[in-house]
Write a structure and sequence with these properties.
Aminopeptidase, 6-stranded mixed beta sheet, 5 helices, 6 strands
């Protein structure tokens, strides 16, 4: 899955150079998988995407990662994964799903119902802070 995350991360030219210079940022913690906080979208050809959701200290949920194979973008995989994230977040009582959005994916996040609520500082840059009511 980290290979998929890498391919998706370098597919957009805005981040390619940064990711190639810092490949160590591509990490999917084993603990998240073991805790059932990650879901994988597969078809007959293999893994097409994955998403991770973490409970936050405030009782809400964080979409910690959403990655889709670049050749499957705009094919419904991301929307399917957001749907799983919503269901999973609601299962532990969250009323909001939050995400620090990749600025290149703003149209996608808006299309699936997220609204921008602020700006977050990331390891490399500022990024939109978004949330969706569940």
């Amino acid at each position: 899955m980290e290979g998929l995350q890498f391919r998706a991360s370098i597919a957009h030219p805005d981040y390619r150079e940064m990711i190639l210079a810092h490949p160590e940022v591509i990490v999917l913690p084993d603990e998240q998988i073991a805790a059932g906080q990650v879901v994988v979208a597969e078809d007959e050809d293999g893994v097409r995407g994955f998403a991770g959701v973490l409970p936050r200290e405030d009782g809400q949920a964080e979409l910690d990662g959403l990655f889709v194979e670049p050749d499957r973008w705009r094919g419904g995989v991301g929307r399917l994964l957001v749907g799983w994230a919503e269901t999973y977040a609601a299962s532990f009582g969250a009323s909001r799903l939050c995400v620090i959005a990749n600025p290149t994916a703003l149209d996608f996040y808006r299309a699936v119902g997220f609204v921008q609520t602020g700006v977050a500082e990331t390891q490399f840059d500022s990024a939109p802070l978004m949330e969706k009511s569940l």
